[in-house]
Amino acid sequence: DHGKPKVFAAKRIPPEALAYLEQYCDVRSWDGDGPIPRERLLAALADAEGLLTSGDAIDDELLARAPKLRAVSTVSVGYNHFDLDAMRRRGVVGTHTPYVLDDTVADLVLALMLSAARRVTELDAYVKSGRWERGQPEAALFGTDVHHASLGIVGLGRIGERIAQRAVHGFGMKLYYHNRSRNPEAEERYGAQYVSMDELLGESDFVVLMTPLTPKTERFFRKEHFDRMKPSAFFINASRGRTVDENALVEALATGRIRGAGLDVYEVEPVDPSHPLLAMPNVVTLPHIGSATAQTRRDMALTAARNLVASLRGDEGAYVVKELRS
Ligand code: 8YV
């Protein structure tokens, strides 16, 4: 492998992606179960020029132990694990995997909305536990309609637009959104109404968080936001758990301040089995699987491999994160 840049793959990737990477790079991989221990990762980077990761913190500590590192490619669209200032200071390129997962995540958000509203997980347990003894389930187990309800998307970006397409064209929903900046295409295409956060919270039967996790969005959704929501409303989060004050979410659900929730992400992951959210029948809990279909995870890994090779070769076409674009 003389002359090929040394790269370290800190997570297992599908064979197609590994084969692509090995065409152009001298690849070493972590092949253990679960995330690579931090010290093993730092030691593995001593002579690496490229790193493929999906969540390891790329910070001063790591960069100091990787003197030859030029490019980091994350197999994710979110890159809150990138310390952008540290990477910029050392001239390290960071890339991510937008677009390939937009529809898969949007499907999962609709699954969370439908499951929470129609009480799918609760009623699945009802049937499987033998409690369905006679006739129709009683009215106390009835759910909430999704069709023609109102949807408020906080963070209407690429994934948000795919959610809007499903909600508006598939379920006839009325769409509100709140963003840092306007999204005229979505307003045109889906009749999305740009409203204040207050108005979105007061009008929406479903509130969907789809913002990236940044210093500005860390725990931005708090008690005051839940207090503004309709008591019949559902809260859906498939972006990052740390965009919400999770204690405020627990309190809003425990006090009946909101009707229910559908969650794919949590402040700490994996979520602790004793976490109060897991004991709430009106909360649908999934293990951060928004993009986790075989096809999409293969596409993400291939995109990440291509990003890494392009970054190391100075080729065009890598999805460099916007804050690190030259
Ligand atoms: C990733 C995700 O699989 O793409 C993202 O940002 O949240 C998921 O698709 C996850 O981040 C990997 O750790």
TrEMBL record:
It comes from the Bacteria. CDD domains: GDH. Residues 110-290 form the D-isomer specific 2-hydroxyacid dehydrogenase NAD-binding domain. Pfam families: 2-Hacid_dh, 2-Hacid_dh_C. GO terms for cellular component: cytosol. GO terms for molecular function: glyoxylate reductase (NADPH) activity; hydroxypyruvate reductase [NAD(P)H] activity; NAD binding. PROSITE patterns: D_2_HYDROXYACID_DH_1. Its EC number is 1.1.1.79, 1.1.1.81. Transmembrane segments: none annotated. It catalyses: (R)-glycerate + NAD(+) = 3-hydroxypyruvate + NADH + H(+); glycolate + NADP(+) = glyoxylate + NADPH + H(+); (R)-glycerate + NADP(+) = 3-hydroxypyruvate + NADPH + H(+). The keyword Oxidoreductase applies. Belongs to the D-isomer specific 2-hydroxyacid dehydrogenase family. GhrB subfamily. This is Glyoxylate/hydroxypyruvate reductase B. It comes from Paenibacillus antri.
